[in-house]
Amino acid sequence: MTDAVSRSHTATPITDIREERHEDVLALVERWLGVELDRASASYGNTGSTVGYLTDTGMWVRIQWRRTTRMNGQAWTGAECASVLTGVAKPRLRRSVRWQDDARDAVWRADEMTAVRSPVVSGNGSITHDPHLDDAWWAELKTSLDALAAHETDRVGMRQAHLTRRITEIFGRSVDTGVDEWRTAHADLHWGNLTAPDCHLLDWEDWGAAPRGYDAATLWGFSLGVPAVADRVRREFEHDLETRAGRISRLLFCANVLRAYARSGKSMPFTEPARQAADELIDVLREG
Predict the structure, then answer these.
(1) N- to C-terminal Cα distance for the chain?
(2) How many Å apart are CA 22 and CA 7, to the nearest integer?
(3) How many CB atoms lie within 10 A of CB 94?
(4) What is the pLDDT of residues 33-80, one digit of tens each?
(5) Cβ of 124: how many Cβ atoms within 10 Å?
(6) What InterPro entries does the entry give (predicted)?
(7) β partners of residue 185
(8) How far apart are the C-alpha atoms of 86 and 123, rounded to whole Å?
(9) pLDDT of residue 73
């Protein structure tokens, strides 16, 4: 469903849904989807562009806005396209509504989906302590990623050109960055998009083709602050991470971390481990 709605002249362009009034948006969602949103269950995303609510029907509604000048077709349709995936532990999309809000200079969408009762492992995406996930959790994650990897798609989660540019920016031309194996990936697999004790993969905006092992490499990277968990990721996904594509994916994560540190000066729990891992990965990749 699509519609166009203009707000009153008192409205101003939105910048952060966490800080700005949007009750009129919630009222539209309730009317169009025929549900009542539980205001007390509000869960806001880290960027101020999303919020989710439990409903009186036991479902979950995720509301998102984008600036009209920054629409990205792939990200905007990610949840809809992901609805065809099978064998993946994820919320099931029921229906969506989209509309334009001229006064806020935004386009909104609301997706109604099955509710996931387990919380995310870490709200900020990385971990500083062991979440103590059981063997069944790891088995579910492996099953989901294997099923996802086998799905054919023309969506792109990571482009060769971007990968090469980012690694070269930090490490120069120290290694050949050409990827020899591509698989379908979630492409944003951090601890803020995984739930426990029941394993579900959330937020499907970015999924698409990526180097083999890309998801495992991302999760490994965001686990480096807890060596035991990073080692568990390496053991569970060794068949992907020890391939050439998997090593390049890990080097890309390290490059992103070191680039962020160089730009901000802010060290994270995984910054120094990423620097050390990068040196080892470059040596192995050079050996071929």
Answers:
(1) 52
(2) 11
(3) 15
(4) 999 999 999 999 888 999 999 999 999 999 999 988 887 778 788 999
(5) 13
(6) Kinase-like_dom_sf
(7) 208
(8) 26
(9) 76
